[in-house]
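Example 9 (inverse folding). The structure is encoded as follows.
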């Protein structure tokens, strides 16, 4: 689950992470009032959407007078902001964050995420703040510092100090080493306590008056841990999220809407990714990622059908299930029953492999659905059949 920058900063400030003074506004008048309340002579008006690259898209404006605050708020509020993360359709800006301006002397990068290879939280730091970390990794990987944290003991003082000193060797004021190390420790506490999947400060800025602050903040939560954080769930901005993805989340289905016309229903994230790859290989375009998990029973299949077919672009559904924990014949019974319950009007191609696969094929072939519900003998055949069906 994602939240807005201003919400992320509210959370981080509870863990003693320094952030700029700011106020959120939903109207131009509120933005003007926020700037007046903050005081000073320079303010920054920042679009609040769930995507990065806002500055490049015109969603971050420096304002050197109240008139500029008004003009920038008028321009940003209501705009369809397009960035490299929103896609060409962009996202509508409904709120802005008005922050104090500051004398920025240096921009740094700091993030934390779960590394499945080392089974630990990895802290990344770099002097190349304000840039996409992927670009830094591709062009100058030597500028990225890494520190793997043992989850059983947490980040140790020497690790935080080593990162801070590594940044110091690359232009950071020596007097800021210990404050930076303390900030890294506080960020790690926030990451663990809030069950984050990603925490990114880009940029972390050093100011002319000797401060280190999180100028921008991105926090993503682990959806599987949200039951422990009702306060975090309350931060969810439903206007920012795809309605079908919200509905799927409520039904405990892992669903991500895409732009194609072949709906996918698969058990297992890896198999789902492979299924989408093969659809692309056969010349088709997947309409979604949908992992029904290990319980592909009639109820879950019916919910998945309803969510997939709520997308008007879907012309065919490909079901790809490997029967390990769940038997293929049980899945096949669920598919046939759900097919009738939902009243599908588009073709469905089924590929079932694993426990009781032969019995499952007999159930599908004898369902009486004719060509609208077809069984494939391999994943490649299923992809080819789905592509052909989607093309009409």
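The amino acid assigned to each position is listed next.
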């Amino acid at each position: 689950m994602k939240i807005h920058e201003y919400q992320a900063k509210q959370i981080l400030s509870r863990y003693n992470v320094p952030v700029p003074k700011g106020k959120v506004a939903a109207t131009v008048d509120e933005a003007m009032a926020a700037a007046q309340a903050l005081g000073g002579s320079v303010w920054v008006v920042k679009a609040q959407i769930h995507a990065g690259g806002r500055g490049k898209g015109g969603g971050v404006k420096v304002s050197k007078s109240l008139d500029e605050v008004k003009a920038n708020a008028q321009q940003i509020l209501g705009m369809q902001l397009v960035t490299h993360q929103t896609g060409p359709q962009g996202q509508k800006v409904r709120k802005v964050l008005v922050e104090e301006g500051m004398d920025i002397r240096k921009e740094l990068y700091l993030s934390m995420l779960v590394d499945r290879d080392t089974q630990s939280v990895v802290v990344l730091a770099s002097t190349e703040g304000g840039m996409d970390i992927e670009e830094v990794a591709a062009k100058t990987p030597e500028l990225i510092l890494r520190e793997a944290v043992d989850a059983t003991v947490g980040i140790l003082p020497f690790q935080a100090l080593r990162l801070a000193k590594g940044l110091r060797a690359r232009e950071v004021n020596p007097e800021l080493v210990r404050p930076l190390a303390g900030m890294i420790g506080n960020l790690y506490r926030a990451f663990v306590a809030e069950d984050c999947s990603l925490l990114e400060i880009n940029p972390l800025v050093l100011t002319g008056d000797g401060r280190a602050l999180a100028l921008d903040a991105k926090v993503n939560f682990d959806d599987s841990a949200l039951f422990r954080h009702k306060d975090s769930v309350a931060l969810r901005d439903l206007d920012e999220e795809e309605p079908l993805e919200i509905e799927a989340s409520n039904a405990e289905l892992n669903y991500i809407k895409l732009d194609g016309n072949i709906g996918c229903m698969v058990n297992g994230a890896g198999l789902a990714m492979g299924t989408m790859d093969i659809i692309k290989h056969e010349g088709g375009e997947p309409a979604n990622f949908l992992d029904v998990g290990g319980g592909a029973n009639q109820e879950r299949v019916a919910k998945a059908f309803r969510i997939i077919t709520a997308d008007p672009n879907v012309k065919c559904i490909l079901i790809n299930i490997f029967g390990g924990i769940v038997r293929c014949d049980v899945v096949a019974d669920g598919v046939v029953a759900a097919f009738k319950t939902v009243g599908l009007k588009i073709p469905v191609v089924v590929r079932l492999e694993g426990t009781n696969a032969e019995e499952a094929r007999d159930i599908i072939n004898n369902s009486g659905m004719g060509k609208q519900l077809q069984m494939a003998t391999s994943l490649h055949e299923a992809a080819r059949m789905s592509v052909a069906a989607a093309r009409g």
